[in-house]
């Protein structure tokens, strides 16, 4: 079992580390170069803009009130511990599941670092849309969490309902995206 767990970690860690580092570096560059918050900078016309914003809430503006920062940090920390435990204990060898978990965990850790680093909130800067029709401003971590959740949903969508506690359930993706963001 230890050898199997070690090979899973070798598959998991490069994607996890790459996404986490990309998120940290991109946020640092955004804070240094986009000095004024909420001022859009066109990158690809009006379609893609970089707009520095700080988000003190969870995914899509969800909030837990004045204690949001600490409640979200505790939830993400618990989720990350759960991911490591699951990664070591799972019987699955599905690379899509490992990729999804790596993306969600890296994104969650990236946003957790922001929550712990300062009280302004998570650094967001990727702004997509047309004119006034804009999507939420997000970051690399948010994109990784979303892609990872979709991968997990796809990997578990057609899996038989075996009741196996080792297999992530069909609701894993929606729970992870809400907690991690």
Secondary-structure map:
Blueprint: H1 2-33, E1 41-44, E2 48-55, H2 68-89, H3 95-117, E3 122-130, E4 133-134, H4 140-157, H5 172-180
Antiparallel strand pairs: 1-2, 2-3, 3-4
Helix pairs in contact: 1-3, 2-3, 3-4, 3-5, 4-5
Beta-strand residue fraction: 5-15%
Integer average pLDDT: 81
| Rg over C-alpha atoms, rounded to the nearest angstrom | 17 Å
Distance between the termini: 32 Å
Number of domains: 1
Main beta-sheet annotation: 4 strands, antiparallel
SSE ordering: HEEHHEEHH
Strand order of the largest sheet: 1-2-3-4
Stretches where pLDDT is under 50 for at least 5 consecutive residues are none
Number of helices: 5
Secondary-structure-based class equals: alpha+beta
* Proportion of helical residues: 55-70%
What is the total tally of β strands? 4
This entry's quaternary arrangement is single chain
Instruction: Assign an overall shape.
Output: globular
Protein described:
The chain is α+β, with helices and mostly antiparallel strands. It has one domain. The protein contains 5 helices and 4 strands. Strands 1-2-3-4 form a 4-stranded antiparallel beta sheet. A hairpin with a 2-residue loop joins strand 3 and strand 4. It is globular. The model has no long low-confidence stretch (mean pLDDT 81).
Please provide a brief summary of the model.
The protein has 181 residues and is α+β, with helices and mostly antiparallel strands. It has helices at residues 2-33, 68-89, 95-117, 140-157, 172-180; strands at 41-44, 48-55, 122-130, 133-134. Helices cover 57% and strands 13% of the residues.
